[in-house]
Amino acid sequence: MVHIGAVRKNEPAGITITNLSKDYETSRGIVQAMAPLSFSVKAGEFICVVGASGCGKSTLLRLVAGFEKPTTGSISVDETEVNGPSPERGVVFQDYGLFPWLTVWENIAWGPRQAHLNRELINERCDKYIKAVGLERFAKRYPNELSGGMQQRVSIARVLANEPSVMLMDEPFGALDALTRSGMQTELFHLHKEIETTVLFITHSIEEAVVLADRVVVMTGGAAKGVPGHIRDVVPIDLPEDRDVTGEHFNELERRITELVNMQDE
Ligand code: ADP
Ligand code: MG
Questions:
Q1: Among 40, 97, 224, 264, which residue is least crowded by beta carbons within 10 Å?
Q2: What's the gap in Å between 6 CA and the centre of ligand 1?
Q3: Could you tell me the pTM of the whole model?
Q4: pLDDT attached to residue 6
Q5: Within 6 Å (CB) of ligand 1, which residues are found?
């Protein structure tokens, strides 16, 4: 990924989650997906959320995205309460979510066009973020002509083109092969240093979380276990920028988080 120089954008925002819970009504009764939880993310922080399948990670992300309404509690991004989706909170999904009938360039331009930016600014944004993800040469291609890793880069650029103050990512690299995935992690890590934005990143890979995060939020429980999903602990990742997955402290953190993920709820 190339350096993109002096990128200016919206300021990153802090996220404040207060007593947030979610119940789903189903034909078999109420499913308590997530117990009331409180948590704050600092502006510009990179937070990874890990936990076993079904512990409520995606539920948490959908609530922060504003796709769903909480059962109790609230979320605010800086001072503003979340009431629905907003381009201020960009969302990247595992399955890319690109428009197959639009080229790479048009996919990236879509958000700025929706925001009625003038043509000059749209072009500027597209140039900047297509470069940021290293896809200038593929501007005229369609998503189905690209590899999975490249499609995920487009979907990241597409979100960044809105210059969001928060980026929400739900297992974005989950469908990629191991080598591509590790390359994408490095790119995202550096992109985050360059482009100041707050990131809430969901993964079930503990290694991925330790590679990327400033802090790792460990969730446990889950409706299927009879205990609503909740935060077990928050682990600060005190590693240097140049992270070595074979390093001693790296492995220590991985071990500690694995223990927390597997800990039984009493
Ligand atoms: P994760 O992303 O950690 O795997 P989810 O947030 O997807 O977990 O799901 C948490 C729990 O809530 C699971 O038990 C899941 O079955 C349940 N759940 C999620 N979405 C719905 C829904 N729309 N209706 C009913 N139950 C749901
Ligand atoms: Mg999920």
A1: 264
A2: 41
A3: 0.93
A4: 37
A5: 24, 26, 31, 33, 51, 53-59, 222-224, 229
